[in-house]
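Give me the 3D structure for A-type ATP synthase subunit D.
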Amino acid sequence: MAQDIIDGINPTRMELLSLKNRTKLAVKGHGLLKEKRDALIKEFFDILDRVKGIRENAEKSLKEANTALIEAQIAMGDLSVKKAALSVKESIDVEISSRSVMGVSVPVTNVKMEKRSIVDRGYGFSDTTIQLDEAAKKYEESIKYLIELGEVEKTIFLLAEEIEATKRRVNALEHIMIPRFQNTEKYIDMRLQEMERENFVRLKMIRSTIEKNKEAEKSVQEAVDNA
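Predicted structure for A-type ATP synthase subunit D (227 residues):
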């Protein structure tokens, strides 16, 4: 056949029944995958809307932090700022878990960061300026945004990969597998009809031969009887 069919298929009624069941499963799977693809795309764009706001907040906070740090360096000197930085205590705790989005495991971060005073950060009042304290607060704020940004960007990356893989499976079913199954069904059905016609002709010829033989035997028997 010119149409694409499954190789090595046997044109039998059992094979046709099995193939029809496979076609039904493929069609059902195609529908489910399309629903999954659409849900993933919706989730993807919902998260994409969040990314812009988080990135803008992170960039704004970092810009303000850098400005405050430059002012602190001018007022205190680089050496004093470095000394104060070395005395800062760690203050952030990040818990990373996951959630499932249509079967895709994406990260979820939980940032624990308490609001701290100058004393809590580890440097004193006497040898620091308000600009340094402002820079510290802005950098702490930036860290939260950057962690959240990392979470959503990783989620977008994972969802994009799954969307692409799901699209490939949908297209393979829609344009290759299901048409191939359907074409093979038509091929088997056509071959079964051809075989039925061939059997009918064969049986008709056998019946005709039998009848001719009976007629011949009858003629011979009559000739014998008349003799």
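Strands lie at 92-101, 104-113. Let me know if you want a second pass.
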